[in-house]
């Protein structure tokens, strides 16, 4: 069983200059900050990376730069998803895998396929991907839920489908996947606030948004959970609840970019249609970051 994706993964933001061009020096600073924070792996250009607003050429540049910045120090995952299956298969076929260890691919969004459509989509993804595949179910963004049955079918049918990032918020669904999944298939939390309870049920860890700003604190909590030290992990879980609420209060990644600005890691510029958080929230985030030290 691969242990690469146990623990804390970070869905990294993409830093931008004030003119909304990519801030590569800040991206390097973020990579080093996260690795120094002892996270287990990084995810480049997931939803948190504002991948929907980057061109194909920009994505290639970010992936290449991130792989060079990481330099093999931790495993690295590329977020590669689409609601156009044919286009996605082509993207995977031409993906430069240098420095990358897996692909995180979101369930098809907007089209609202039935479960058989989701299965057939991922079947082609699994067959085309040069790297292991992590499924990603996030109904609040995609407009459709990938059921436990579909996740388990994919987990059993394709050896290179190694994990699911689950962000449905549905504990009945979580229970079914965790109960019936193959032993070597990883269940990864896709929602920061429920990582602690999910790990008590057998989740392998989290792919986190808040960890961009609090890598040390979050990864310590997750490692304690992996060691079955839930009593020791609980105070960290509860201490992170307020910052988690604040960072998602006006959408992601606006909140976490506000926190990263406070920490001096990168600016808080977003690309439209996303906009900055309000001054009131920005100040509240800064106060909570200061409180957490």
TrEMBL record:
PROSITE patterns per the record?
DHDPS_2 (PS00666)
Per the record, what is one GO cellular component? Answer: cytosol
Keyword Amino-acid biosynthesis applies: yes
- SMART domains membership: DHDPS
Chain sites annotated for binding pyruvate: 48, 207
Database matches in Pfam families: DHDPS
What is the designated name of this protein? 4-hydroxy-tetrahydrodipicolinate synthase
């Amino acid at each position: 069983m691969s242990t690469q994706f146990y623990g804390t993964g970070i869905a990294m933001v993409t830093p931008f200059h004030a003119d909304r061009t990519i801030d590569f020096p800040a991206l390097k600073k973020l990579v080093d900050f996260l690795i120094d924070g002892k996270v287990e792996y990084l995810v480049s250009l997931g939803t948190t990376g504002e991948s929907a607003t980057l061109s194909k050429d920009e994505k290639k540049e970010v992936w290449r730069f991130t792989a060079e910045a990481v330099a093999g120090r931790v495993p690295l995952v590329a977020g590669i998803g689409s609601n156009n299956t044919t286009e996605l298969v082509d993207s995977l076929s031409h993906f430069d895998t240098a420095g990358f260890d897996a692909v995180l691919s979101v369930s098809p969004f907007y089209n609202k396929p039935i479960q058989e459509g989701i299965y057939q989509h991922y079947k082609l993804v699994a067959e085309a991907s040069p790297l292991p595949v992590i499924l990603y179910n996030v109904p609040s963004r995609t407009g459709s839920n990938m059921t436990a049955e579909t996740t388990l079918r994919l987990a059993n049918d394709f050896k290179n489908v190694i994990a699911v990032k689950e962000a449905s918020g549905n504990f009945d669904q979580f229970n079914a996947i965790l109960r019936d999944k193959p032993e070597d298939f990883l269940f990864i939390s896709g929602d920061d606030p429920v990582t602690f309870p999910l790990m008590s049920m057998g989740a392998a860890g989290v792919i986190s948004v808040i960890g961009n700003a609090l890598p040390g604190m979050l990864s310590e909590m997750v490692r304690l959970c992996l060691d079955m030290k839930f009593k020791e992990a609980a105070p960290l879980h509860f201490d992170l609840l307020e910052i988690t609420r604040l960072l998602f209060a006006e959408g992601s990644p606006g909140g976490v970019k506000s926190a990263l600005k406070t920490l001096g890691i990168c600016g808080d510029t977003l690309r439209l249609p996303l906009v900055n958080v309000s001054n009131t929230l920005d100040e509240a985030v800064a106060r909570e970051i200061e409180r957490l030290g």
